[in-house]
Amino acid sequence: MKTSLSWLRDYVELPSSLTAEQLDDALTNLGLEVESIVDQAATVKGDLLVGKVLTIEELTGFKKPIRFCQVDVGNATPQEIVCGARNFVEGDLVVVIMPGGELPGGFKIGARKTYGRNSNGMICSARELGLGDDHDGIVVLPAGVAAPGDDARPVVGLDDVLVEVEITPDRGYQMSLRGMARELSHAFAAAYTDPALIDAPGATAEAPHPVTVEDTVGCDRFAARVVRGIDPKAPSPDWMKRRLTAAGIRTISLPVDITNYLMLELGQPMHVFDLDRLSGGLIVRRARPGEKLTTLDGVARALDAEDMVICDDTGPISLAAVMGGETSEWHPGTVDVLLEAAHWDPVMVGRTARRHKLFSEAAKRWERGVDPTIALAALERAVQILTAHAGGTVDERILDIDHVLSSPKILLDPALPAQRIGLPYPADRVTDLLGQVGCRVAGSTPLEVTPPSWRPDLLAPIDLVEEVARLGGYNDIPSVLPPARGGQGATPAQRRRRTVGRAMAENGYVEVLSYPFVTPGTADQLGYPADDPRRSAVRLSNPLSEEEPLLRTSLLPPLLATVKRNLGRGKRDLALFEIGTVFLPHLVTTAPPMLGVDRRPTDEEWAAANAIVPEQPWHLAVALTGEIEPSGWWGDGRPAGWADAIEAARIALAAAGMDAARVTLAAAEKSPWHPGRCAAVAVDGVIVGFAGELHPAVVSALELPKRTCAMEISLDAVPAAPVVQAKRISTFPPALIDVALVLDRAVPAASVESALAEGAGELLESVSLFDVYESDQVGAGKKSLAYKLTFRAPDRTLTSEETLAARDAAVAVAASRFGAALRGDGRSRSRPGDRA
Predict the structure, then answer these.
(1) 3-state DSSP: the chain helix, strand, coil percent, rounded to 5?
(2) Alpha carbon distance 105, 547 (integer Å)
(3) What percent of the chain is predicted at pLDDT more than 90?
(4) 354 with 307: CB under 8 angstroms?
(5) Residue 779 pLDDT more than 90?
(6) Which long-range contacts (CB under 8 A, 24 or more apart) does 355-362 make?
(7) If DSSP states are collapsed to H, E and C, what string results for 142-193?
(8) Mean per-residue pLDDT for 770-779?
(9) Cβ atoms within 10 A of the Cβ of 375, count?
(10) Is the dihedral of CA 122, 128, 131, 137 positive or negative?
(11) CATH class of segment(s) 211-402
């Protein structure tokens, strides 16, 4: 909301010595966020004077018309100025900025020779002065308004202060001079004049134009008046143009400017129709399927059944409360006008504006709430201003279809403000402050408070408490910190997440935080089967972006989008991880109960509300692409592969306290992973996630590099870490034996490792795979897996017989389970330095 201080002074008697700092403090304490306060006089530096054009010499021989002017600026010698504008004549008063001055935007003015003549200064246009968009000609002042040499700032309106504030969504009444002036009257205890309190005639028995309102919920008031025979060429008065320009609104024509001016002054949006372009009577209703409307911005819009429209016999001619239509708008030849002022449902307007992406100044006010009682006052003001400047005959008939409901009373305990704010507020003080807001207060305990018509945000006792605190003075409320209670520290789940995140970072992964919103096409891009439960996602009723209305059921979609974004910015080697919640909906058919704030919900209501809240388990996901080990002068690097994604799962589970023996891997098929390069990660036999290389189709759909890998596990599915019992460290030497086994290529190495560990018994300290070999010597469809077995006893040095017996037992289990055979002569190989 932008306006000028002089306009505010029309309605509130502010102190004459008011400074920008005092105004800023007052608005801030009233709850308005001040964007800027600009003294217009300071925007033009140097001498800005009124000049009288004495002579004009037309210079020829140039590509464009040039004039050499002698201008009287109050000095003994006329000022020589070269100017290209042609909208002034000798004897006109103009605005001149002298050499050494500076116009808005940092445009410095000096004396120079141009077009063969000396030019000392510049004759200014409205745009050069920051007063509007008109750059076609310079500003010509009315005769006798000032003398040559006078300061031109007050003459052209550059002596004002411009104020811009940000209005919170719940205080629509502040989006008008009427509302801002009322607020400032509270801050300075100044007299206030309500511009809406004028003598406005009421509805007549006969309407000036037939109107039918079919939906009195979407439009509970519709008023209209008619003026015929206006001068279509009548310009808007200068004072109105200056105020509209200061508010950031472009001037168009007198009828349209009047509606915009009154919208700013009273907060009542209005619309002007060309009466001769209307076909039949008007109908106010909801849009019907298939209807379209071309709005004033030239866009043809498909209407929704929730949209309110104004129609004539040809169909919709206006998108109600948002923007008018092309077929009935004012045009330069309009002589008969119908002025409309209505009251529309704020929820409907807000949804319509978002649906059509039309956030007009009118829609912003309707969405926040408009006083439903000032329609006739706004029409009377519009008729007065229009006929005063464009003539015409006012139709004495007045239309007013009124279905507005009265504001409900709010019962307020007079002790509640003191209880909530922490300051003593006697009952009479509470009554006085609420009276300043405009409320009617009756009764004693409790107070019966009726909010004013311009405050639709006052709905509950706590809203009134806020007004008491605001007008009573926020600065008077002491800042007292609540006592800090002793805590129990982080929960086990929190400690686990932090430990896992720290482990991932220590292993070279970079943490990212993504928005949990995804597009409806994400499931198709990731190749989820039709019956995959991850396709069922929670849809937000009011999403931040209409393109991403769903909550994620997996961390991978936003994480892979982050990978793509970094690739687009030149990063090629990426190892990212994210820890966050996913949202798994409960597929229920019952609607959630509507819970109020006036009481605690019952156990049944609370259970019903929670029944539709989705499960929100914590997941960990990683994504890798490019080189996991960088190349350089030391040699070639190593690209990230599916094994690195699996290792990321091992790292995370180890950090979560899971012993390696409890973690098992098995080949799996799970979207979006490659079916031949995907592993199911299980703890104690329960699958907690998957890891591997992404499917080529997924990589192509997401425009990621080939062989991009990923892992995702559910941290909430990982069991709690057991209490670790420290093992006695043996001082006896280990026995090391290598075992090479030949078996089918399809057998997972991890399964063979588990079988060896199971058969070796308690003497086995560790087993690890160090070689995988495939060749014709091994056999078709076969592979050789070589493991290092480490045996150690806690109380003695193992003998060769004990070690070989444990080795043979381990091999026997692998042979019986997978048909494995010792490679070569069927014997194992002892490593140098082995003791057995």
Answers:
(1) 30, 30, 45
(2) 39
(3) 71
(4) no
(5) no
(6) 355/304, 355/306, 355/307, 356/301, 356/319, 356/322, 358/295, 358/297, 358/319, 358/322, 358/323, 360/322, 360/323, 361/249, 361/260, 361/263, 361/269, 362/263, 362/269, 362/321, 362/322, 362/323
(7) CCCCCCCCCECHHHHCCCCEEEEEECCCCCHHHCCHHHHHHHHHHHHCCCEC
(8) 88
(9) 26
(10) positive
(11) alpha beta
Same fold, 2-41+161-188 and 414-476: yes
Q: Are 437 and 471 in contact (CB under 8 A)?
A: yes
> Coil, strand, or helix at residue 696?
helix
Q: Which residue matches tokens 């793509």?
A: 564
pLDDT digits (tens, 9 = 90+) for 84-115: 898 999 999 999 999 999 998 889 999 999 99
Q: Tell me the backbone φ, ψ of residue 646, rounded to 5 degrees.
A: -65, -40
Question: What tokens does 570 get?
Answer: 């030149």
Distance (Å, rounded) from C-alpha 664 to C-alpha 678?
Answer: 13
Inform me whether the pLDDT recorded for 831 exceeds 60. Answer: no
pLDDT at residue 767 in the model: 92
Residue 79 pairs in a beta bridge with 71
What does each C-alpha distance from 9 to 6, 17, 193 come to in angstroms? 5, 13, 10
β-strands 211-213, 282-286 pairing: parallel
Compute CA distances 828 → 12, 739, 810, 819, 835, whole Å: 100, 5, 12, 17, 14
Mean pLDDT of 396-403: 96
Q: How far apart are the first and last CA of the chain?
A: 89
**Which residue matches tokens 């989008």?**
561
**The model scores a pTM over 0.90:** no
Report pLDDT for 68: 95
* Contact between residue 104 and residue 68 where contact means Cβ atoms under 8 Å apart: no
Given a contact cutoff of 8 angstroms between Cβ atoms, the answer to whether 504 and 652 are in contact is: yes
Strand partners, 315: 312
Q: What are phi and psi of 740, to 5 degrees?
A: -110, 120
CATH code of 492-582+617-717, in short, is: 3.30.930.10
What CA–CA distance (Å, rounded) separates 326 from 256? 14
| Tokens 């070269």, located at residue | 82
- Domain ranges across the chain: 2-41+161-188, 45-156, 211-402, 414-476, 492-582+617-717, 735-830
Q: Which amino acid is at 586?
A: H
Is pLDDT at 598 greater than 80 in this prediction? no
Assigned architecture for domain 414-476: 2-Layer Sandwich (3.30)
What pLDDT does 818 receive? 92
What confidence category does residue 594 fall into, taking pLDDT thresholds of 50, 70 and 90?
confident
What integer pLDDT is reported at residue 73 of this predicted model?
Answer: 95
- CATH class for domain 2-41+161-188? alpha beta
Q: 293-350: per-residue pLDDT in tens?
A: 999 888 999 999 999 999 999 999 999 999 998 888 888 889 999 999 999 999 999 9
Q: Check if the beta carbon of residue 465 is closer than 8 Å to that of residue 416.
A: yes
Question: Is residue 461 within 8 Å of residue 413, measured between CB atoms?
Answer: yes
Homologous superfamily, domain 45-156: Nucleic acid-binding proteins (2.40.50.140)
For residue 678, which of 687, 689, 669 has the smallest C-alpha distance? Answer: 669
Amino acid in the structure at residue 237: P
Q: Mind listing the pLDDT tens digit for each residue in 205-222?
A: 999 999 999 999 999 999
- Tell me how far the alpha carbon of residue 371 is from its chain's centroid: 28
Fold of 735-830: Alpha-Beta Plaits (3.30.70)
| Residue 506, helix vs strand vs coil | helix
